[in-house]
Fold Leptin receptor.
Amino acid sequence: MWMDIQSKGYVDAVRLVLVPEVTDDLSRAPLRDSFQAVQCNCSVRGCDCDVPVPRAKLNHSLLMYLEMTSAGVTFQSPLMAVQPSLVVKPDPPIGLHMEITDDGNLKISWDSPTEAPFPLQYQVKYSENSTVTREATEVVSAPSLLVHGVLPGSSYEVQVRSKRLDNSGLWSDWSLPRIFSTQDVMYFPPKILTSVGSNASFHCIYKNENQIVSSKQIVWWMNLAEKIPEIQYSAVNGRVSKVTFSNLKATRPRGKFAYDAVYCCSGQECHHRYAELYVIDVNINISCETDGYLTKMTCRWSPSTIQSLVGSTVQLRYHRSSLYCSDSPSIHPASEPKNCILQRDGFYECVFQPIFLLSGYTMWIRINHSLGSLDSPPTCVLPDSVVKPLPPSSVKAEITINIGLLKVSWEKPVFPENNLQFQIRYGLNGKDIQWKMHDVFDAQAKSASLPVLDLCAVYVVQVRCRRLDGFGYWSNWSRPAYTLVMDVKVPMRGPEFWRIMDGDVTKRERNVTLLWKPLMKNDSLCSVRRYVVQHRTAHNGTWSEDAGDQTNLTFLWAEQAHTVTVLAVNSIGASHANFNLTFSWPMSKVSAVQSLSAYPLSSNCVILSWTLSPGDYNLIYLVIEWKNLNEDDGMKWLRIPSNVRKYYIHDNFIPIEKYQFSLYPVFMEGVGKPKIINGFTQDGMDKQQNDAGLYVIVPIIISSCVLLLGTLLISHQRMKKLFWEDVPNPKNCSWAQGLNFQKRTDIL
């Protein structure tokens, strides 16, 4: 509070003496000792005395008197009671703003500098400078004033001051003057910010050479490239035209322009000024996720649809209901802002912590701009319905012994307490894993067994989970678990084997070397640690020899009959299905192969064909041997079924080399006498056609015939022409007279 006191120049000093505390009871006079003085600053115009008064006691009374000193004599005024609220001089209004309304009037608005504890009235003075200059002063109680009849090309200067509404106190100082000018073409509003799917309208007044263009003569254009249909025009009055856009689509930025320019034109003449239309897609998707510990909810959203709106700010606002979500979420007036942090991926991330699992969080994005604010459609999220569980723990994977299945086990996460479903992905370990999926819908399950093709490979396995009712998200995949390569069963069978004989064929003792091929992992399930050869004879009984990891073993054949079996042994045991081979002196003289032929088809393939002698014998299988007689590169062999009569041998055969082919019949009682040929069969292609390769040659002959027939048909006419060129003219040759050449032609 300040007081303005007039004083003459002969006053030496002036001070204000008052009770420091305001009071609302004037019946009790304060003691003289309770008064205190406030020094005043005096000038020729008067004295100013500043008295601080608490805001809460503006309506109380303040007791004071004035004390002046002149020429050593002090004078005192009578005791006065002053109520501060009745002598208030407010500060001048601020934020003076002017805009054209939709119906073409000038709206002047302002704000009070501070919130006054009592209602105010305002005095507005303005001057209009157009074709005719006018001035006006009006007193209003609201912080705005509407000036009618605004014309294009006008200029307005406005000032405002305030005072208590009950006329007590003093008028404030005038606000700083504000000037507002209108253009020859007035758009109101000059800019519109709206959302996709909404409607928007522009108004305009067009002034051309000091004449207002009739609203019926105004046409509208979009970006000066598209004339707006006249059905969207309407005349508000004789000078104001209106255009309306319905169900607006998002504005497509054109270079640096993020708006559509709307032009108000007089016939074919368009002024360079335009209105700006900003249409923003506010359909922003907000996705939320509750962590596996159920302690916080993280929401993410992208402002990509509104990034073209320069100068805008975005904010997530939310309202939490006490329980669950409503069927139709709506923007609640009592909302709160949420601080969100922009991430590197362009998304904003907001964290709600702590959370109420069963409370409905209604949230939306508010876009703030100088043109206004827009809200995205609200969405309601229940934290309990967007849980992303922790991944299952203690995941293990193994190939089960004796069953041969991939067994996966895991432990369910503690939270959430809802029933969970599980998903397993598994594949062969490597650089590019081809994943296979398996779903487990049993909430109580903690393991699953899956069939796999390769039991002897390393598999990588991961497990994830989500709520069984489908709400929420899949958890992250668990840490990978790997199977160990280990034997799951005994080998499926023993190896196929054959023998090499050494020594004199006339003697009863010969060295026999067994040869076998290593078992593949699919047959060995999954490894072979060693091979064991079992012997059985009539006199010596049965014994075994450990061959270790070798693929051959030599023994002495001295008995009438000697049977051997080769077993494959892994960490679980020995193979059950094994091949037997019996060496018998009587059976070695039995000849069951009547003929054997070998025909080379190419350098990589030879076809062997044979015939068997008729007889009553128990033939188990046949063994083919072949070797290069010019090189000491060893013998090669194949075991084939007993019902086969021809076989293709694939190897590298050199045409100029000499090869030996042998065919052994193998009986239950022993190996029979072989049929041996040195070199390829020499009786020509007829033998190949009749015995072994007939089905190879016949297609070639058929193809040749087809080609020959085609050639004959194509050249038929040419043959006729060539033939008749050699026929003599009957008129010139006596021997040709009397012959019917027409008949010859018909025959041809």
The mean pLDDT is 84. The chain is about 5% helix and 45% strand. Helices lie at 521-524, 684-692, 694-714, 716-725, 741-747. The longest helix spans residues 694-714.
